[in-house]
């Protein structure tokens, strides 16, 4: 691990000295001190000694305006940039005296849990002499929020009397002997360096999507050119230089919609299917593609008045890298033109979909939750293999579970037999993919349940790619997890097409649009 977060549980005089001592202990590495929030940016000592994202005044105003997510996302972006620039980043928390203890505690735990940085909690000597009940319960809150505490360190002349109780409340903590504020033992540094990232947080997953998309800019066409959510997403992506954007629609209407929304959309390209210079060539091409279906040139001209068909044709001809639609259109409106024009890639017989379900401490992949109502065993196997490939493309090492109402041989029935056959086909087709089934969701996802139900399975309790037996189960499950577990659902991401086309839920929010566009751009990179 190349990062560490040093914090305290209350006002601390020792925390800053300890953070600086960590940097000295790291020594030979290129390192930096990062304070997400500082008192000011003009003070010489602050400016020279650390990197920062906000002043307390700025954060206070943003939090008062309900912009906590903006603060956390800005910190994630700044931290990510520093972690790429330096070999080691020491982050230092606030002092719990400017914004108020509870406000700062909530902000710090949100930041720590999102960037998944090991934490060293520094206790001052006077705090060590007090009852450990508050310390233990506070540490319990930290760990339950998803923060990984590497060590609890007392800075003073006496040992930490509350070590045993801290361990009882937070099993991941390794209490260390007290040290002077300016000293750091090699043991502490070794613990941190040995820790590996344990999770993929929604914030880091989304940030990595944007970073990867920006590394090789693609051109994404959006046929819903006057939809406010689409415009807001386009505005943000253009300003951050993540990708190039083409909006389909009447130029005057699109520009009016941008202005009405108070947006800029710098560098936006607007294409009107009724006036675009390529429309005749596109119509000739479409008529040729669909002539076996009886389509004439005149039919093609009429078809291409539809924005989604025109955008799909742009992708087919290479005038755009990928397409995203669905904010105001059905999945069928998005998929049908893609199937007719772009078609499936070699080896794929169907188009399917996955959702990236970003939970607090992990990313799961759910397929197929949007396209195929009742897949056959062969189609289910193909969905599983495609889902594993998509997961791997986006940094999830696939462990695939075929879901059913039965785990192993515990149940019987036509639906169970379908899953059993699908598993057999998938194993024969893709022997290198780790997969198993049938498995119930709890057996697939929860180690303790897996030990009881299917102890010999290499997938049970470890699955991160879940293949649902039909659309009814998949669609309802992803929405249940999204709403009840406060998960970020990224998708549906379509798989099986020659070129990337992705669908949006009509209930999507602006972040959903941004994520889907970024995923489409990454798919287009190859």
Overall mean pLDDT: 83
**Range of strand content:** 15-25%
Taking strands numbered 1, 2, ... along the chain, how are they ordered across the largest sheet?
3-2-4-1-5-6-7
Number of strands: 18
Low-confidence stretches: 42-48, 126-134, 157-178
Q: Whole-number radius of gyration?
A: 26 Å
The major pleated sheet works out as: 7 strands, parallel
Task: Give the helix level as a range of percent.
Answer: 40-55%
Structural class by SSE content: alpha/beta
- Helix count, per DSSP? 22
First-last Cα distance: 30 Å
Describe the model:
- With 526 residues, the protein is of the alpha/beta class.
- Helix content is 46%, strand content 18%.
- The chain has 22 helices and 18 strands.
- The protein has a 7-stranded parallel β-sheet with strand order 3-2-4-1-5-6-7, sandwiched between helices. Strands 15-14-16-13-12-17 form a 6-stranded mixed β-sheet, with helices on both faces. A 5-stranded parallel β-sheet has the order 10-9-8-11-18, sandwiched between helices.
- Strand 6, helix 8 (163-169) and strand 7 form a beta-alpha-beta unit.
- Helix 10 (202-215) crosses helix 22, helix 13 (279-289) packs across helix 14 (297-303) and helix 17 packs across helix 18 (414-429).
- Residues 42-48, 126-134 and 157-178 have low confidence and may be disordered.
């Amino acid at each position: 691990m190349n990062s560490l977060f040093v914090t305290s549980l209350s006002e601390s005089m020792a925390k800053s000295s300890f953070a600086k001592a960590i940097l000295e202990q790291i020594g030979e590495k290129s390192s930096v001190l990062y304070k997400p929030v500082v008192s000011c940016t003009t003070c010489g000592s602050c400016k020279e000694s650390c990197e920062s994202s906000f002043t307390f005044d700025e954060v206070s105003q943003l939090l008062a305006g309900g912009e906590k997510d903006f603060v956390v996302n800005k910190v994630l972006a700044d931290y990510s940039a520093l972690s790429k620039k330096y070999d080691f980043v020491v982050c230092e928390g606030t002092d719990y005296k400017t914004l108020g203890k509870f406000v700062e505690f909530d902000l710090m735990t949100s930041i720590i849990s999102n960037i998944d940085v090991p934490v060293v909690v520094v206790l001052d000597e006077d705090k060590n002499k007090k009852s450990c009940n508050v310390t233990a319960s506070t540490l319990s809150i930290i760990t339950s929020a998803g923060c990984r505490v590497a060590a609890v360190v007392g800075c003073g002349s006496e040992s930490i009397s509350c070590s045993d109780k801290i361990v009882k409340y937070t099993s991941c903590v390794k209490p260390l002997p007290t040290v002077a504020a300016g000293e750091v033992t090699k043991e502490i540094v070794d613990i941190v360096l040995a820790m590996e990232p344990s999770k993929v947080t929604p914030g880091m997953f989304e940030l990595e999507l944007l970073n990867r998309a920006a590394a090789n800019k693609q051109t994404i066409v959006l046929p819903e050119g006057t939809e406010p959510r689409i415009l807001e997403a386009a505005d943000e992506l253009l300003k951050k230089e993540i990708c190039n954007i083409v909006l389909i629609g009447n130029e005057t209407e699109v520009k009016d919609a941008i202005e009405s929304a108070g947006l800029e959309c710098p560098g936006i390209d607007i294409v009107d299917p009724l006036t675009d210079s390529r429309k005749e060539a596109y119509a000739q091409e479409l008529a040729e593609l669909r002539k076996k279906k009886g389509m004439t040139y005149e039919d093609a001209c009429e078809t291409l008045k539809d924005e989604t068909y025109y955008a799909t044709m742009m992708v087919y001809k290479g005038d755009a890298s990928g397409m995203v639609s669905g904010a105001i259109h059905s999945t069928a409106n998005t998929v049908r033109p893609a199937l007719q024009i772009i078609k499936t890639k070699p080896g794929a017989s169907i188009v399917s979909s996955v959702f990236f379900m970003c939970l607090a401490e992990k990313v799961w992949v759910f397929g197929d939750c949007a396209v195929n109502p009742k897949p056959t065993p062969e189609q289910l196997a193909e969905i599983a293999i495609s889902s594993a490939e998509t997961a791997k493309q986006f940094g999830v090492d696939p462990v695939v579970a075929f879901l059913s109402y039965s785990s192993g041989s515990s149940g019987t029935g036509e639906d169970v037999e379908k899953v059993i056959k699908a598993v057999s086909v998938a194993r024969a087709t893709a022997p290198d993919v780790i997969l198993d089934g049938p498995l119930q969701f709890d057996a697939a996802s929860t180690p303790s349940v897996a030990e009881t139900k299917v102890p010999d399975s290499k997938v049970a309790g470890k699955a991160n790619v879940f293949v649902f037996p039909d659309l009814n189960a998949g669609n309802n499950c992803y929405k249940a997890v999204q709403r009840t577990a406060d998960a970020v659902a990224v998708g549906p991401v379509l798989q099986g097409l020659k070129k990337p086309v992705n669908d949006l839920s009509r209930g999507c929010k602006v972040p959903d649009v941004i994520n889907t566009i970024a995923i489409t751009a990454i798919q287009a990179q190859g």
